[in-house]
Amino acid sequence: MQPDETLLRLEAVQKRFGGLVVLNNIDIAVGANELIGLIGPNGAGKSTLFNLITALYTPTQGRIRFRGRDITGTAPHRICRLGIARTFQLVRTFLTMTAFENIMVGAVYGGGGRVRHATAAAEEALELVGLTAKRDVRTAHMTLSDRRLLEIARAVASSPALLLLDEPMAGLNPTEIQRMVDVIRRVRNERGVSILWVEHKVDAIMKVCSRVIVLDHGEKIADGTPREIVANRKVIEAYLGEPAA
Ligand SMILES: Nc1ncnc2c1ncn2[C@@H]1O[C@H](COP(=O)(O)OP(=O)(O)OP(=O)(O)O)[C@@H](O)[C@H]1O
Fold first, then answer.
1. How far apart are the CA of 49 and the centre of ligand 1, in A?
2. pLDDT value at position 93?
3. ABC transporter domain location, by residue (predicted)?
4. Domain extents in the chain
5. Residue nearest ligand 1's atom 4 by CA
């Protein structure tokens, strides 16, 4: 990958909490329009990585660059304006607001406060995730699946170049999972958004992503195509907990 094609670049990133090294020496490059799966056993450091990219945490070592610009230590609200959006493992929607109002929060924020532009962006995002019919339903009355889609719509409405998805399929049934897969593909294909997707449902990642990164105990142990990943000895050991035969 040429440097000018790289959207996000992590260079030797380390995160330590006191004496505990949670991520160590992480190098990751995300190109334009990539759909990358980020997997790893519990406690591998996946959420911490997202918290570093979105500046909720500051790395103890290393640099993070977005579109060539060093964003290490940038304030979280600036990260959003620069074009990085995320969803959360535990859905964070405003329960007393309608679906549309929730999305407007993202649209106004990402659009720099212009309401007319934000309204159009919010309507388009609702349509993209298939929630137009639930536009005026309060989030408190929506299913978990719809709330997860709503979070994606809110993120998309802020017009990001990079979207970080934190376990969007957790708690969904097979039908809902298929719907989520379709939406993730649409976000990437129709919006040209690069996606870094943390997921425990590894089979979905292997089917949908062209590239997969694996973390284990805070180290990046593999980065390649799904075919390469399933044959990788370190990955097999990390998941099975014992040396592969
Ligand atoms: N604020 C914190 N202070 C101390 N330790 C932390 C903090 N945040 C995370 N950790 C530790 O860092 C390690 C990685 O946690 P993280 O949540 O990033 O893993 P994960 O791969 O997202 O796990 P899961 O798949 O279970 O969500 C864990 O050992 C966790 O206890």
1. 9
2. 67
3. 8-242
4. 3-93+159-240
5. 17
Q: What is the ipTM of this complex?
A: 0.95
Q: Please, are residues 188 and 156 in contact by the beta-carbon 8 Å criterion?
A: no
What's the pLDDT score for residue 158?
Answer: 87
- From the CA of 37, how far away is ligand 1's center (Å)? 18
pLDDT at 50 over 50: yes
Distance 36 CA to ligand 1 centre (A): 21
Q: Which CATH superfamily is domain 3-93+159-240 in?
A: P-loop containing nucleotide triphosphate hydrolases (3.40.50.300)
Whether 46 lines ligand 1, by a CB cut-off of 6 Å, is: yes
Cα dist from 81 to 47, 166, 194, whole Å: 21, 20, 16
